Amino acid sequence: MRVERTIAAARAVLAPLRSGPVGLVPTMGALHEGHRSLLDAARAENDTVVMSLFVNPAQFGDAADLAAYPQDLERDLALAEEAGVDLVFAPAHEEMYPRGFQTWVEVTELGSILEGAFRRGHFRGVATVVLKLFEIIRPDRAYFGQKDAQQAAVIRELIRDLALEIELRVLPTVRDGDGLALSSRNALLSPSEREKALALPRALLTRDRDEALAILRATEGIEVDYVEVAPFDPPVLAGAIRVGSTRLIDNVVLTEGETV
User: What's the rounded Cα separation, in Å, for the pair 196 and 206?
Assistant: First the structure.
């Protein structure tokens, strides 16, 4: 497994490997089994697998949230190698956002609702860094998780609107045995906070917005940001809550009849 930190070096590694399909798994590190499912799919479907590892400051509106984001580079690299990754692209901030950087990409409508309403500028940061990764790696397929349903919807629209020749692969949400969707932020929860956080997947499993809201509002120690039916592809019942200082999102996929 190669680990490269510059755009030029990553491109040089990939140049002789383009006779077969290239799969990209973008990550911000703190890898868990959800990431592993993406890496395994990429490994099964492509000749070359690239994992990016970059904590993107442009998608954090809160400096404290960025500082608290869990990072363990050594562990992440070990897990990537175990999963059969060929290249890890792990650039520094200055490599992705050089001095004087001023070009941004925005998916206006999809990026302004739900998470976009609570985290202003978040999806501008996501769309910009993902498009830049697409340009650097030039993958045939890109892999994302259903847990971040709105992110997947934004990237699908980005690919469609800009006529990018990339297949978007969105894999099912991976959950712990207790039902909590795997997230790097779960490591920030205390045991008692985690117990409260379980109300989110339980509420969404009702597949009814009003019932889910009632469950969450009745759970002590939870602050509800939203529970909404989102018209993504596929449509989902999505929710976001705050437990202590940690913010969690989740969703369940709905059938067409359940969206009414």
Answer: 17
Cα Rg of the chain, angstroms = 18
Residue of 32, 35, 93, 122 with catalytic role: 35
- Reduced to 3 states (helix: H, G, I; strand: E, B; else coil), residue 150 is helix
CB 22 within 8 A of CB 47: yes
Strand partners, 123: none
Backbone angles phi, psi at 162, to 5 degrees: -95, 10
93 included as an active-site residue: no
How far is residue 51 CA from its own chain's centroid? 13
| Gap between the Cα atoms of 119 and 259, Å rounded | 25
pLDDT tens track for 96-149 = 999 999 999 999 999 999 999 999 999 999 999 999 999 999 999 999 999 999
